[in-house]
Design a protein that fits this description.
Elements: E1 3-12, H1 14-26, E2 32-41, H2 43-50, E3 54-57, H3 67-84, E4 88-92, H4 94-106, E5 111-116, H5 127-140, E6 146-150, H6 152-160, E7 169-172, H7 185-195, E8 203-207, H8 216-225, E9 231-235, H9 241-250, E10 257-261, H10 266-269, E11 275-278, H11 287-295, E12 299-302, E13 318-320, H12 325-337, H13 339-353, H14 359-370
Parallel strand pairs: 1-2, 1-4, 2-3, 4-5, 5-6, 6-7, 8-9, 8-11, 9-10, 11-12, 12-13
Helix pairs in contact: 1-2, 1-14, 3-4, 8-12, 11-13
Length: 391
């Protein structure tokens, strides 16, 4: 008998959205029927529809706390879940995780699952806010049957904060597409042509939403401190895009900063990077890092949450402290001036990924979590090329 699954996420974009959609479409269709419930989304919604996933948009489901909109979003979710009789509700992200799980519990949904892509709490917010988020998640654990943590660091933090029970928790990797383009002299030349960059330029690149979490101002300051003259390419839009452009102008480096905004051809652009850099203050385990490693690009990233699952210091990349532009600059200089070592990091990183980060692996795990008494149904890996995005 086919089980009906509602996958609920606030913003179906970037890394978390990709994991949600790739998981949904990798489930065996003879066992599960999926509906994606979102507040907003991008090309991922088209990809979901193309693979037979129904999409329902709840416009009041937004990321910022908004009491009036949150109340309307909850009523919409409550009404929808009561009318559709789902067997499983699987939530993603903080806002959808709260409203979706409460609505699912009150609607009597038999099984409730939540994915921890990261946390709404972090070290760069007031302690009272952090504690409020932690208390909320501890309360929600009482109505949550299972948690999926994206990366070991996320799982450890959840356990350390006592927001989950050990028996509730399964650690997963973020599902990404197999790299359609591998770094090579030819792909590098094509990517730099797409970006309008000289073939002999030194390029530090990143992919991510321009917001407080990703710390674009830290990346800019690191660029000014680097001894190696490099161009920074940032793929991704967001609320800090214009401010970042102004900061680059004020620092006198605007001619060395390429801000691309959102792009759908990220896999084709990655080979342009000599090094992939991440300056985030906090993360779960970004899909963009795994995608860069799949492509064969060496990585320098901040040592936050589960990033160390894939960036092992001195083995498959370099890690630096968050919000430390001097350390980030030094690490980038080292990677760029030691190309053989950086190439060995990239090679080791690709080798260590294995099948852990494939959509089919996630689909098989979802089957076990959704229907534990029937563990072992095989998911079908589905090719999802063309889902390029700025995460």
């Amino acid at each position: 008998m086919t089980q009906r699954v509602a996958h609920i996420i606030t913003r179906c974009v970037a890394g978390a959205g990709g994991v949600a959609v790739r998981g949904a479409v990798s489930l065996p269709r003879d066992l599960y029927s999926s509906t994606l419930v979102v507040g907003s989304g991008d090309v991922l919604l088209d990809a979901a529809r193309a693979h037979g996933v129904d999409v329902v948009v709840v416009p009041d489901l937004v990321s910022p706390i908004s009491p009036a909109q949150d109340a309307r979003a909850y009523r919409s979710l409550d009404s929808f879940l009561r009318s559709e009789s789902f067997d499983i509700v699987h939530t993603h992200s903080a806002k959808a995780g709260v409203l979706g799980r409460v609505a699912a519990s009150r609607a009597g949904v038999p099984r409730i699952v939540h994915t921890l892509h990261g946390f709404p709490w972090h070290d760069f917010q007031p302690a009272v806010v952090r504690q409020a988020y932690i208390r909320t998640e501890r309360t929600l654990a009482r109505i949550t049957d299972a948690y999926l943590a994206v990366g070991t660091g996320v799982a450890v933090e959840a356990l350390r904060r006592r927001v989950v029970r050990p028996d509730q928790l399964v650690t997963i990797g973020p599902a990404v597409e197999p790299a359609p383009v591998i770094a090579s002299p030819a792909s590098r030349a094509r990517a730099r042509t797409l970006l309008g960059l000289p073939e002999d330029a030194t390029v530090v690149g990143t992919v991510g939403r321009m917001d407080f979490q990703k710390a674009p101002e830290v990346m800019l300051e690191a660029l000014t401190r680097m001894r190696t003259p490099a161009v920074l390419v940032w793929v991704g839009g967001g609320p800090l895009l214009e401010e970042t452009a102004r900061r680059a102008e004020a620092a006198g480096i605007r001619d060395r900063v390429v801000l691309l905004g959102n792009r759908e051809d990220v896999p084709q652009l990655l080979p342009a990077f000599d090094v992939f850099a991440m300056s985030s203050r906090y993360e779960g385990l970004p899909c963009a890092i795994v995608e860069a490693q799949e492509c064969g690009i060496p990585v320098v990233a901040t040592s936050v949450n589960a990033v160390s699952d894939v960036v092992v210091p001195g083995v498959s990349g370099l890690l630096v402290a968050p919000q430390d532009p001097a350390q980030l600059a030094a690490a980038l200089d080292h990677a760029l001036t030691h190309p053989r070592q950086a190439a060995s990091w990239a090679e080791h990183a690709r080798a260590q990924l294995g099948t852990r980060y494939e959509a089919g692996t996630l689909g098989a795990t979802l089957c076990e979590v959704y229907t534990p008494e029937q563990a072992g149904p095989q998911s079908v890996p589905i090719p999802l090329h063309g889902w390029g995005r700025a995460s």
